[in-house]
Amino acid sequence: MNDQRPIADRPQDAASAVALATVEVTHDIGLHARPSVVFTRLAKSFPCAIGVEVNGDGVWLNGKSIVKIMGARIRKGFVLSIRAEGAAAAEAVAALRTLVERNFDEEKSHARSA
C-alpha cells in the first residue's frame, strides 16, 4: 500500500524504518536552482519517502519535489530537518545531510563580490 499522507502524519510501527537529521544551510545563496536540483536528484535516487521541514515550521515538504524545495526559498542560515521513511531511510538522510554540509558540491558559492 502506498500511503500518500505526509510523512509526519503517517502512523509509525516497528516495520517502518525512519531516520531524521538536522542540518544548517551554509551555502552563501541557499538552495537556488542548481543546489535544489542536486538535492532532489539525490533524494529521488532512494526508494524511501523523504520530507524536509524548514526552520521547524511544522510543514513537511516532499524532498523529491523540485517545485516544493525551490518554493521554500531556503537561504543561508536556515535549518533543515530531513526525514526519511522506508527502505534505505538512514542512508538517504545521511547522504542528503552530507550534501548540504558540502554546499551541494558546488566549487564556488556563486555569491556576488563586495
Count of discrete alpha- or pi-helical segments spanning 4 or more residues? 3
Helicity, as a percent range: 25-40%
Number of structural units classed as domains: 1
Shape: globular
| CATH-defined superfamily | HPr-like
Measured between the Cα atoms of the first and last residue, the distance is 53 Å
User: What is the CATH C level class, in words?
Assistant: Alpha Beta
Q: Got a strand count?
A: 4
* Poorly predicted runs of 5 or more residues: 109-114
CATH architecture identity: 2-Layer Sandwich
The computed structural class is: alpha+beta
Mean pLDDT metric: 87
Largest sheet: 4 strands, antiparallel
Strand order across the biggest sheet? 1-4-2-3
Oligomer: single chain
What order do the helices and strands follow? Answer: EHEEHEH
Residues in β-strands, percent: 15-25%
